[in-house]
User: What shape does this take?
Amino acid sequence: MEIAANAALVVVDVQQGFEELDFWGVRNHPEADGNIASLIDVWQATGRPVVFARHDSDQPGSPLGVGRPGNGFKEYVERRRGKGAGAELLLTKRVNSAFYGTPDLDAWFKEAGITQFVVTGIQTNMCVETTARMGGNLGYDVLFALDATYTFGLEGPFGWQLTADELARATAVSLQGGGFARVVRTEELVAAATAR
Assistant: This one.
């Protein structure tokens, strides 16, 4: 795997509100936060661009609502912001895709000549997956850092329920099987990004 010198890292919705497990339920990938931190560190140390996306929910009662403590980034993300040698972008959004945020991510990428990005964050099957799918549709080379994401179990139609792990596997299969992104592990990304 090759990581472009200007490949961006898109960190999606790593916000305090996702710690409210009474609201969200059981999560998976307990190693995800450490992996997200590792990717930010490597991207910043190698001078690559990092995008921090924040979900400003307008849903009543959402832990991610504007003005609520849960809207802020998790502490390990907040303390890393502004510390990299490369470009950094903060964008806010109210929907699932970081490509429908402010400022315009696609325009920012195009202006910087970025054609490849790694996506990480919360939730695997929601905003992270949607961002990856849109990136693939827009022609970017998308790398999906599966073990640097996490999600929660969910109930859908007909009483169907899937665990967080089942949802993460479905996302991985859909993204790679459908040609939207390459699903990779943090360890591979770190090795490729630091290779000389």
Q: What stands out?
A: Residues 32-45 form the longest helix (14 residues). The mean pLDDT is 97.
